[in-house]
Specification:
alpha+beta, Jelly Rolls, Phage tail protein beta-alpha-beta fold, seven-stranded mixed β-sheet, seven-stranded antiparallel β-sheet, 19 strands
Length: 350
């Protein structure tokens, strides 16, 4: 089997298109390598690849020492050829993937955890505790929560450790991103405000964004060299204002939806709408104004509903009450679908 065939097999494995048999072969060969050589040094993979290739060639020669070369080519069964492909392909892939994996995960987090001069502050009161950091960022620490942070942030990035719940108002500094580590996730921002909550009973982490943009990534508890980590990157989501995500560590899955109480989003050079009084206004126009105000997509699934008009005052209501009041006037209901509000006729709601 040619090297081109090896690469084709690798691509199939990376894309998840291998047959069960092919997948088992690749993973069986990997397990063999993992047991035989515990080194994680990428520089040794080339030698390991050649060593395994030589071993396979020797096995083939020994098994077919009595067979003429032209007959050997015909008798080499598909499974044996596939095994060879899997072996060499796995080594090649591990060589590249482990290098990328290792370089992508800088030791900054590990180094930060090893810093001895961290200030540890626990909120032992029944009220929210305000902590001001050296860069001007503030943290509103909820009761029984703990924040660990350095007196002076590093030049490259700002890092803190949160246990429990807290609201962060981060000063903007694009050259020094702000990272919050908690038990399950790493939340990365430049300048924004957001809340992180940990559910003690379910071990889930919830991140809600008020302003700016946030990247939430599942945290790697251990830097272990494993096949799973080579081929599956850590789950992550990008959140914008009025969005929240819940990370379920057991399933390694993020569920992203809208915040519990969306608030108007400040758009640069655009004044916020002072009131929401409407008089015979097309429903589509009312919803368009709400979309702009809250930065949330609102979809009318039934075209017939767009022909309705709305008269009323929604100024003193939160977003969900606004939508609910509007829906009642046009005999409709709404549902959340991810980060979108979907409005349907009542008889079409599941």
């Amino acid at each position: 089997m040619s090297r081109a065939s090896f690469h084709q097999l690798l691509e199939k494995y990376q894309q998840g298109n291998c047959s069960p048999e092919e997948q088992r072969l690749v993973e069986q060969w990997y397990e063999m390598l993992d047991k035989q050589d515990s080194s994680n040094d990428p520089a040794l993979f080339g030698l390991l690849e050649q060593k395994l290739w030589d071993k396979i060639q020797n096995d083939i020669r020994e098994e077919h020492s009595d067979v003429q070369p032209e007959i050997l080519h015909r008798k080499l069964n598909f499974k044996r050829a596939l095994t060879i492909a899997a072996a060499i392909g796995t080594i090649l892939l591990i060589s590249v993937a482990f290098f990328l994996y290792k370089t992508a995960q800088t030791p900054s987090q590990q180094a930060f955890y090893q810093v001895k001069k961290l200030i540890l502050q626990t909120n032992l009161t029944s009220d929210t505790l305000k902590i001001k950091l050296e860069d001007g960022s503030t943290v509103m620490l909820e009761p029984r929560a703990t924040l660990e942070y350095p007196a002076h942030f590093a030049a490259e990035q700002r890092e803190v450790i949160l246990t429990g719940n807290g609201f962060f108002q981060v000063s903007k500094n694009p050259s020094r991103p702000f990272l919050v580590y908690n038990k399950n996730t790493v939340t990365r921002v430049v300048g924004t405000s957001f809340t992180i909550k940990t559910n003690i009973s379910t071990n889930e982490t919830e991140v809600t964004v008020k302003t700016g943009k946030v990247i939430v990534t599942a945290k790697e508890e251990k830097r272990v060299f494993s096949l799973k980590k080579l081929f599956h990157t850590s789950p992550q989501v990008v959140l914008v204002p009025n969005q929240k995500t819940i990370f379920q560590p057991d399933a390694e899955h993020f569920t992203t939806t809208l915040a519990d109480n969306p608030i108007p989003v400040q758009v640069k050079n655009q004044p916020q709408k002072a009131d929401y009084k409407f008089n015979e206004t097309p429903v589509s126009e009312v919803l368009s104004q709400l979309e702009t105000t809250y930065g949330i997509k609102i979809l009318i699934e039934d075209e017939a509903l767009k022909n309705n008009t709305f008269t009323g005052n929604l100024s003193e209501q939160n977003l969900y009450n606004k939508i609910d009041f509007l829906c009642q006037s046009i005999n409709a209901n709404y549902q959340l679908s991810g980060t979108t509000i979907v409005i349907k006729s009542k008889n079409k709601i599941n």
